[in-house]
Design goal:
376 residues, Aspartate Aminotransferase, domain 2, Aspartate Aminotransferase, domain 1, 2 domains, three-stranded parallel beta sheet, 11 helices, binds pyridoxal-5'-phosphate
Length: 376
């Protein structure tokens, strides 16, 4: 078995090499490294893909979240509800802006926000909710949006892991993840489902005024050059990244499909195994499997992780320490008895297997056979 990767970007590149090389060369030859035509074209194409009016590109997914919260005009002390079970960036930006993160629990089957837990976390100070479409599956947005609307709280979606995913409302209406909140954020980190060849990110919105504000904040608070209306930051998507992303966007649906095929293979191999819970696919969402994450019961997850490594099979723990237990955020957890029962439980059970667009049946067979052998 050749060198297995969590994400195999080398083989993916080989299949689109001709297009990618030409696009990068075109940027280099034009020397339009910053704000070149590919940036605007990519923003337009992504807006069409995601069913939103505006896409504002920026430097990375963390910036997208930060700029979004800045644009909402939140003040120090305002509370922002986030899941604790997420990549740290979701919560870090809240703290960075002097806002107060309030942690909600997730559901054990979907790994995404539990609506009752959000309801309990709402106070008069709650000024935003950030649902995270973790591992590639949409949060159950309909009840969340209803709850947020009832309290007049804006929803900012963290769609860094789920671009391409679709949510279906009870009446059958469909919406892409990232298009349902007042703002949606995404990341083009290379290993994401739509990954560039470096850092990148974007914000989605249907609100014209907000789009203008997001654009200004990402550009030093200016609309007219050298006339700065508000404090902003410097957050741009490089032209080379935009050129790469334009090509990869054309393949995104087939990439999501390839991930789902790999997930189907895993599901079938692990079905009904007493130690394994395979990822639940909620009926309201089209899962795009940014990660394929198992829950391991009655067997030490860390032993599985180590024994797989001995067979040269990479596996990862996303995430070993939930946000509410991170030293970085300890000031925000005042009650030493604070618990998030589901988050606290799954942190020791989850393990993610290799998941990408290039997995072959031979590789999947090798991985699944070894997982089953180790578990016995
Ligand atoms: C990757 C990721 C981010 C941050 O994206 P960067 O581009 O690395 O800054 C934010 N939230 C989640 C859930 C992510 O997975």
């Amino acid at each position: 078995m050749h060198n297995l990767q969590m994400v195999d970007l080398k083989r993916q590149y080989q299949k689109i090499k001709t297009e990618i090389d030409a696009a990068i060369l075109n940027v280099v030859e034009s020397a339009a490294f910053i704000g070149g035509p590919d940036v605007q074209e990519f923003a337009k194409e992504l807006a069409a893909y995601n069913g939103v009016k505006h896409v504002i590109p920026c430097a990375n997914g963390t910036d997208a979240l930060q700029i979004s919260l800045m644009a909402l005009g939140l003040k120090p002390g305002d509370e922002v509800i986030t899941p604790s079970f997420t990549y740290i960036a979701t919560v870090e930006v809240v703290a960075l802006l002097g806002l107060t993160p309030v942690f909600a629990d997730v559901d054990a089957d979907t790994f995404t926000l539990n609506i009752d837990s959000v309801k309990k976390a709402i106070t008069p100070k709650t000024k935003a909710i950030i649902p995270v479409h973790l591992y590639g599956q949409s949060v159950n947005m309909e009840p969340l949006l209803a709850l947020a609307n009832e309290h007049n709280i804006p929803v900012v979606e963290d769609n860094a892991q789920a671009i391409g995913s679709i949510y279906t409302f009870a009446n059958g209406t469909k919406a892409k993840t990232g298009s349902m909140g007042i703002i949606g954020c995404t990341s083009f980190f290379p290993s994401k489902n739509l990954g560039g060849y470096g850092d990148g990110g974007a914000m989605f919105t249907n609100d014209d005024a907000l789009a203008e504000k997001l654009k200004m904040i990402a550009n030093h608070g200016q609309k007219v050059r050298y006339y700065h209306e508000m404090v902003g930051c410097n957050s741009r998507l490089d032209t080379i990244q935009a050129a790469v992303l334009r090509i990869k966007l054309r393949h995104l649906d087939e990439y999501c499909y390839a991930r789902r095929q790999a997930a189907d293979y895993y599901d079938k191999a692990f079905k009904n195994h007493p130690n394994i819970v395979t990822p639940y696919r909620a009926p309201y969402t089209y899962h795009v499997f940014h990660q394929y994450t198992l829950q391991i019961n009655g067997f030490d997850r860390d032993v599985l992780n180590k024994k797989l490594a001995e067979k040269n099979i990479p596996s990862m723990i996303y995430y070993p320490v939930p946000s509410h237990k991170q030293n970085m955020l300890k000031d925000f957890v005042k009650d030493s008895n604070f618990q998030l029962p589901v988050t606290d439980m799954i942190q020791d059970k989850v393990i993610s297997l290799p998941m990408h667009t290039e997995l072959t049946e031979e590789e999947l067979a090798y991985i699944t056979t070894n997982v089953l052998e180790i578990l016995g």
